Amino acid sequence: MTIPTGSTSQASPTNLQTETLLAPGTLFIFSELSAMAMDGVLSHVFGQVFRPSSLPETPAVRAAALAHHIPAFLSHRAVLSQLTAAWVYGCAPPPGEIALLVDNDGNSASLPRRSGCSVRQVQLDAPCVLTLETTQLTDGLRTALDVARSAPEALARPVLAALAGEPALGCPLERILHALAGAPHVPGKLRGQALVQSMLEDPASRSLEEGMFRDLEGAALNPAEQTAMLQAFLAPLLAPPTAEPEC
Predict the structure, then answer these.
(1) Would you say 21 and 64 are in contact if contact means Cβ atoms under 8 Å apart?
(2) Which letter, b or e, does each residue of 84-121 get, where b requires 16 or more Cβ atoms within 10 Å of its Cβ?
(3) Domain for residue 244, yes or no?
(4) Which of 34, 122, 91, 113 is nearest to 228 (CA)?
(5) Total domains, the chain
(6) Is position 144 within any domain?
């Protein structure tokens, strides 16, 4: 995985690729896009957004698909975060709700009902925010810190292992723990420290971190294979409880 450290050029090949993403509009309605996906012409990315099947699903493509669902009045301020950012990096399943951060600059950040997004106003440090073309998201370390502090533990463990196991993100478990220790008093800090410490002490977690996205021969999986593997791994954890039969 290659993670840009800043804005990409408007003329870059990646930008031209994400401009080919399709969503319901003047050309096609959703049912037509879905039919093309069933025919193999398109592949679903997120929500109502599709990509040509020949276009690889990269972090930039996933970020652009999410950006399509952010309310327009927040699009210039919103930063993808938490499990949403982890999905962009290929380290979590697609989010049920798009998690956004906005800088606490005094401006309102309330969302309309049924927006499909959640938003928190925080003090954002510029170094912890990356830009994929025009979409902002938290960097690997900030994403891992937020997941450790706030995601359900059963989900946080494999996602943290995946983030820590991706060298391009630069956030091994030791660095995550050190960053948590140095963070100011924030909600979930102690829980996050305990979770990451337990992962460091668990050989199974270290094995997962080191080999999360490798095949049986030790070769690295491509992004699509990584996402499919993680979704299969997490499916039992995310499945709703089975209803008790009525007597």
Answers:
(1) yes
(2) bbbbbbbbbbbbeebbbbbbeeeeebeeeeebebebeb
(3) no
(4) 91
(5) 1
(6) yes
Return the closest-CA partner of residue 85 out of 136, 121, 51, 49: 136
Reported pTM: 0.78
Structural domain boundaries, residue 223: 37-235
Rounded to a whole number of angstroms, the CA Rg of the chain reads 19
Q: What is the pLDDT along the chain (247 residues), one digit of tens a residue?
A: 545 434 443 434 445 456 789 999 878 999 999 999 999 999 999 999 999 999 999 999 999 999 999 998 888 899 999 999 999 999 999 999 999 999 887 676 778 788 899 998 888 888 899 999 889 999 999 999 999 999 999 999 999 999 999 999 999 999 999 999 998 888 999 999 999 999 998 866 655 555 555 554 545 555 555 555 555 545 544 444 444 444 3
Give the strand pairing for 98-103 and 117-122: parallel
Q: Is residue 240 part of a domain?
A: no
CA distances from 152 to 98, 135, 137 (A): 16, 26, 21
**Within-domain flag for 58:** yes
Q: Which two tokens stand for residue 80?
A: 């993808």
Closest CA to 48 of 22, 13, 85: 22
